Amino acid sequence: MKIVIATDSHQPNEKYRDALLCAGALPEEVELLTPGDPLPEEFDGLLLAGGADVDPARYRETVFNSSVEIHPERDRLDFDVLEIAGRIGSPVFGICRGLQVVNVARGGTLWQDLPAQRDRGVKHDCFREDGFVPRHEAHPVRFTAAPSLKTPAFEALRRAEPALAVNSRHHQAVKDLAAGLLPVAASSDDLVEAFEDESGRIVAVQWHPEDLVARPAHRALFAGFIEACRVFSRQGGRAPLPLVEVSLEGAIPVLRLNRGDQDNMLAGGMAGLLADSLEALLSDATVPALVVTAAGRSFCRGADPRYVGALARSGDEASYAKFLDEEARAILAVARGKRPVLSALEGPVSGFGLSFALVSDVRVVASRGRDLVSFSASLHPSIPDLGSGATYLFSSRAGTGAASDLFFSGETIPLARARELRLIDYWVEEGSARAFALSRASTYAVRPPPLVSTFKALLSSRNLAALEEALQREKETQLAWFRTGELLRNLPVPARPIVKEPPIQ
């Protein structure tokens, strides 16, 4: 799936990208498109970002006054890519200027300068006495009472938040709404604050939900857009492989982490999908044992720092806490499960991947023909990546001294040293770890399932309370780092420059 953000280098593009990541998009699914870039022939969703004013000539007017700021190259980009979206039928999400672009493209008009042309007492900006505050809730908007809303996200907002508080920073707005566009929300001075088209394919808002994505109502707008993009992608036969895939090898299910081109780092709901799959499989009486493997060159490198960074920059602590809970749920699914779990490890293992390998009942390693297996506490020594019980799981297996050395140094443990520390159970020198793990799982499968389950419970029960306590301690530590900004240190920065304070739109 590919979501295109039509924007320019003067906008806070990090915020638009982060909002999509917070709402469930994967980093590799989001692409910035700026003036001068080649226009894509196809995509699965278009987000029209904020920016300068739309040229009044496009709706047959002349410039009203000096406050109107026109960027012709941005106009060309937005109107051209919106035309492509219309031709291929992809979903469109317009934000602020994006709403205005859609309205003008469909034949509508704009107020060029609200304070001068239509001052009705509502302040449509985020400026307070203490300065520019993007998250300042300037005024409420009320949703239409009509039951015929085409967009699930708008309908959910209407039911849950009939008077939603929004931020605002625009001096232009819809004057004449184009035919075929349906008003969804309005401010108290009767400006159109949101609309959709008759098909529900296009949604647009006048406020800036990317600044407020930490709040469920505003995040729901991005989540609804992403889901529409995924549906469009599937309908076009471009759907990617599932993030977590389960197949059957004889009687043995094999669960594969499927984000191999990104080192199987967790993002976009992947942790929750993994936890759900593990809970279902390991409670199924027909499953004799489970083999867990991974696509690509790494087993799992932990949480995707681009996803964590998006949550941190957006201040979305609730979503980060949920992510940590999903990681913990996956770990506990293995520890509490009634069936043996064998991890087939090939390539680097770190962060959540380390915890998952250690909580597994059996670890099988193969390194021939691929990157050597190695173990580390996190993807980068300066990025804290706890929350999945690694401090307890590593020390209980390798000892407190080895655990202290690992976490204090941030170094990577090579395969030979991992073997000395009893981190692995089988080292396969010929063939794949997956094939060997399947062979061992088949051996377990010939024994009576109740007997195997009893042994699993006896072996793991004494450690469950300690693991649960460690998971809670690590979660509290990660959330404390989140609040202090520690998680943002050394995280990847956006590839393109951003401007802290955008133009008035």
- Domain count: the total is 2
User: What order do the strands of the largest sheet run in, or round the barrel if closed?
Assistant: 2-1-3-4-13-12-11-8-9
Q: Assign the CATH topology of the largest domain.
A: 2-enoyl-CoA Hydratase, Chain A, domain 1
Give the overall shape, derived from the CA principal axes. elongated
Give a short account of the largest sheet.
9 strands, mixed
The poorly predicted ranges are 494-504
Label the CATH architecture of the largest domain: Alpha-Beta Complex
Which CATH top level class of the largest domain fits?
Answer: Alpha Beta
Broad structural category: alpha/beta
| Oligomeric nature of the chains | single chain
Find the CATH superfamily of the largest domain.
2-enoyl-CoA Hydratase, Chain A, domain 1
For the residues shown, what is the average pLDDT?
A: 91
Beta content comes to 15-25%
Radius of gyration: 26 Å
How many strands? 22
How far apart are the first and last residues' alpha carbons, in Å?
A: 29 Å
Work out the helicity level: 25-40%
